[in-house]
Sequence to fold (631 residues):
Amino acid sequence: MEESLNQPNNLIIDVSKWIGPKTVDIAVIGAGARGLSILERIVAFARAKKFAPEINVNITIFDPNPFGAGCHLSDQAEHLLVNTIASQITIFADHTVQGSGLILHGPSFYEWLCDHTSSLHDPNSYYPRKLLGEYLEWSFRYLCSLAPDTVNIKPVSHRVISATPSLKTWYIKTETGETSYQNYVFLTTGHEHEILRKDAANSRLFSAYPLHISTSGIESHETVALEGMGLSTCDVLSMLTIGRGGKFSRNQQGVLCYQPSQTEPKIIAFSRSGLPLSARASNQKEVREQYKANFLTRQAINELKNKYQKLDFAKQILPLLLNDMEFVYSKTYIQKYHSYIAANIFANAYLTVPANERKSLIFDYIPPQHQFYWDNLANPIPLTALESKAQFKQWLNNYLYTDVVNANEGNVLNPLKAACDILRDVRDNLRYAIDFAGLTESSHRWLMTAFIPTMNRLAVGPPKIRIEEMLALQKAGILKMDLGPQPEWEFDKTSNLFVIQGKFETLEAEVLIRSRIDIPSPQQSSNLLLQQMIADGFARPFFNNQFHPNGLDISQDFNMISKENHVYKNIWALGTPIEGPKFYTFILPRPFVNSTALLDADRVVQSLVNQINAESAPIQNQQPEKVYDSK
Fold:
């Protein structure tokens, strides 16, 4: 005994050797692009051995759709296009993402296309959504193959209908009644595509999605009205024309023409603005190339935040944004109509002269009628065009033809398209000003009702081919889209017809499709999981004072907040469910530009790793007890 006491190190029993690996259960609810980004980050952190050595991770991924695809299903029609060029889509983080710095190498959508299809591909082209779905599904399988032995991935092809906190876990239940306890949860459910409830028993009123439901059962002798002239309308038009055997081709002059199949219905398209979204210009920028703000900078926004408790977008943010747009427009115009040298001389002067001298500087190079005016972009329809149906139709045709010409010139060489592309390039700085109720309540309302519709029309329109198709369908007598601004519609129960009151005439239709993607508020969502969490008080809608822009309330670390203001540190929400506290979440990750989607995923998974390691630290670091041999 005395010998043992004198040599205690020989008698210490390392208790940690008796403790096996600790298993942590993680749920990812929704396996579209956002869910994939979470999986990608967990696998990257695990391969880099950032989890404590004794940690094994079980990841259960819930989604009724094919894993990875989300709403980009691979069984869609070939003629439905992605609204982003191939080289600007990826699932994999890169060294520009200003987070953990952990990289898991994988192909962009364009690179995957080059490897997986035999034809030649253009990095600046728009490809079928079914191919994007295949890429996303492949990415899921690729990530599973890269997961180390310490990570077990279990796909579950069912919807989650409830999530209830229990001590340090969440009790998860699926639509089949299957239950599990999860230590950590990521909510990435994305868009919900539900059939619109009918306003009247006999009406044929549909939401655009699912397309196979909204566009089926429409006879060629019928008329269908489309409320909206944006991206969803492009999909519906494609289904009702190309999807029914119609053909687009170019004549000898290069103008797109339409050859009907005689199975198309008559189509009426209308919108509040009276205009389709503007065509996306041909991309002339490198994958890594984005305009860096000279006026709407992080520093400028920080100075405003330090001065004001909350910002007024129209008074404080928009002027800075318009300075950047005016700068790019003017420099591009001078480069086009004068010279590169003149454009550079102008740029140096514009960035250094006092603000009140910029206009006179522009006058030296650009005639007044060709200068940049935001009001002309926000409200392009002149009063003369609204004097008669014929004048509006002629003006609209000229407007759309000019838009196509501008788009063909590209987003670097065309002054107008170059300026509008700024709205996309500086979006992260807009987020920095807007996110987490950064605006006053009244300004936030103005942003949602006035600015965002204009921004969408100018910057997130369809590929230019879709505008050409609209013009060709109009010329073929299939499509009518000259109802003018602020049309209204109602359902006539007597005739069972939809009555559309335009600026110049009244029209009727058997079917009405609300061809826009509405994001229902969480309180009105058909998502049973969101309904349950809000009803039970485990989640709450986001409000900026009395204004509810949309989305669930989250902390700045993306953690869910309960009705009673409790922040759940072990559940995070990303993407569409938090479109409200976060600005413009419905995007696909883009490579080499510090994509916010990739950065957000890195942040929350870093938080996950920190929490798991902190909880395992007492076991990992504690000194084992001294146990003496009784001999």
Remarks:
- The chain has 18 helices and 19 strands.
- The first strand starts at residue 22 and ends at 29.
- Residues 298-459 form one domain.
- The longest helix spans residues 596-621.
